[in-house]
Amino acid sequence: MATYKEIRGSQIEAVATDPSNPVEGQVWYNTTSNVLKGEAATSVGAWATGGALNTARFGAAGLGIQTAALMAGGAEPTIVGKTEQYNGTSYSEVADITARRLAGAGGTTAAGLVFGGAPTSTSGTAVTETWNGSNWTEVNDLSSGRSALGADGTQTSAIGAGGRPGNLAVTETWNGTNWTEVNDLNQARHALAAVAADSTAALAFGGFEGPSSYTNETAKTELWNGTNWTEVNDLNTARGFLPGAGISTNAIAFTGRDDTPTYLAVTELWNGTNWTETTDPPATKANMGGTGSSTLGLTSGGNASGTAQSTTEEWTGAGTGVTRTFTDS
Fold it and tell me: Are residues 91 and 31 part of one domain?
């Protein structure tokens, strides 16, 4: 029989007070009341089908929230600069970005940021552009041109980590004017996901460790505190090309693929300490544009066994949790 640690990847914690944001399946021992407790779900989170992209593509950069988002660039497989804006129901084409795929992004539909990416199948660019609600404007470049990086933040405070060509650990932060190279990831990788409220707190997870492109998928998760990356508990399922949404203490990772490639329909939630698998998405695909929060996420486009997709999936939360006390009866 498997142990709790083998299933969850960590020991049962001993805490003086119950955790403030436990996830389904988490177990802890309360040293104040001297009881063993666990978190159960009374309802489950759900995926719903949203409005499709007008142009099927994969590797688009996603930014915004579930009801107001942008999907910029991508490949059909021809690499394009098409940008589409989502209003919670449908997508409309707006002004083009510099053509590229696998770029980083952050911000909102009123004040967005897209950086890096691949303008060809093999190259990486340093181009950074801001969005003002109507048009893209080129601003100061990344220090290191690359694609397939983990990225998030706002138009004035963002972070980008890892990427390719090669297999990179480089991390840069953006202050609204310039990029600054800071401390590297502990594990060099590409096609990873990252979530961040701003450049001072981020979570990077998944990806491929290489050494060649899109090989050796990883479950590694690292936490950024504004100065350094620290390894924390792994994803349950190793994978790359997975979009993420949320912030460093409360995030979601959905779908992805390994290096065979097998496409995965897996959703995991992060509560600041552990990843927990939850409701599977309706589509098995990878390399989608993703954005939103851990309770209201959005993914669009993607790649399913080599075919560009236009479909959109909306995540509507993790369900309602309830804490149970274990007894010996």
Answer: no
Q: Taking the C-alpha atoms of 151, 152, 158 and 164 in order, what is their torsion angle to the nearest 10 degrees?
A: 10
Task: Locate all alpha helices (DSSP H) within the chain, ordered by sequence.
Answer: 4-8
Q: Do residue 54 and residue 189 come from a single domain? A: yes
The residue behind tokens 């309830």 is 322
| Largest interatomic CA distance in the chain | 66
Residue 289 backbone dihedrals phi, psi, to 5 degrees: -80, 135
* DSSP state, residue 7: H
- 127: domain range? 47-315
**Which pLDDT tens digit goes with each residue over 91-102?**
999 999 999 999
Residue with tokens 């759900």: 46
CATH number at residue 85: 2.120.10.80
Please tell me the pTM assigned to this model: 0.85
| Distance between CA atoms of residues 222 and 214, nearest Å | 19
> For residue 41, is pLDDT > 50?
yes
Asked if residue 125 and residue 37 are part of one domain, the reply reads no
pLDDT tens digit sequence for 80-119: 999 999 999 999 999 999 999 999 999 999 999 999 999 9
Q: Are residues 23 and 117 in the same domain?
A: no
Cβ neighbours of residue 50 closer than 8 Å, sequence gap 6 or more: 86, 88, 89, 298, 300, 312, 313, 314
Domains: count for the chain: 2
| 33 closest CA partner among 323, 228, 237 | 323
The answer to whether 309 and 74 have CB atoms below 8 angstroms apart is: no
Residue 176: half-sphere exposure toward Cβ, Cα within 13 Å: 4
By the 8 A CB rule, do 263 and 240 touch?
no
- How far, CA to CA in Å, does 12 sit from each of 3, 23, 24, 43, 183? 10, 13, 14, 24, 32
Q: Which two tokens stand for residue 30?
A: 């309360």
**CA–CA dist 274, 97 (Å, integer):** 37
